[in-house]
Amino acid sequence: MGRMMWHHACMTTYPSNQAAQFSPSGASILVPPGIPLRPVVKGWARVRADQVAALEESQEVIATLRVEYAETTGRFEVAAFGLDRAEHPLEVSGAFFRTVQVHAIAKQAIPAAVPSWAISLTRLRSLRSRGGLKSFPEFTLSDADEMLLTALIYRIAEISGENPAQAVADSIGLKQRTATNWIARARAAGYMTSTEHSAAARRLAAAISPFQSQHLSEQMDDSNARNHIPADDIRALVEREDVAAAKAIEREKSRGND
Length: 258
Description:
Largest sheet: 4 strands, antiparallel
Helix content: 40-55%
Structural class: alpha+beta
Oligomer: single chain
Number of domains: 2
Distance between the termini: 26 Å
Radius of gyration: 20 Å
Order of helices and strands: EEEEEEEEHHHHHHHH
Number of strands: 8
């Protein structure tokens, strides 16, 4: 059963078995190098002390938010943000609000705005710990795909309000100077301004997905070694969570089309 809380003068349900829920809306727009976006995402997320310094470790609050894509800045901006103290005896005061990492929390909504094939691209920076995509011996790309991948990573980071050049370096496994050169090549070839690369972008995203799966498998093996948890149990759990997350995203997008 979800807890019932007052929000915006009406009763709102936040299911206790969900960490967040976001719904995209608005007619899809196409941004370079060919990424379809829903321009508005709204919803809520549970946040804890790592994103709200005023909270104790055992406490959480509900953040309600709406982000909107601004063509003038080329990224999603926080259009509305609020907090519900849930069941905890605390006051959401100005001093409390100053301890909230608003943008870090709002970034959680952005994956709901991109198509399912592009969600994996939003997670590429997790490969930084192992040296990026270049740490996989099987990772090879043509010059055209190198420039397209660079543009995809750059634009998704830019859309999310992150440092795009650093995202390229972390995701692919490049030194900062090399990443800057790759970005310049992609820009000169028109990948940063053209929206005609959707089909190639989908193909490329599918091609790099196995590397992320391998990285996840290695992380699970490390966890198994540390915690003595059967690897098969961890893999089964992650697979169920991935399937559930994908279904939830598609369900929210379907609702946004209604």
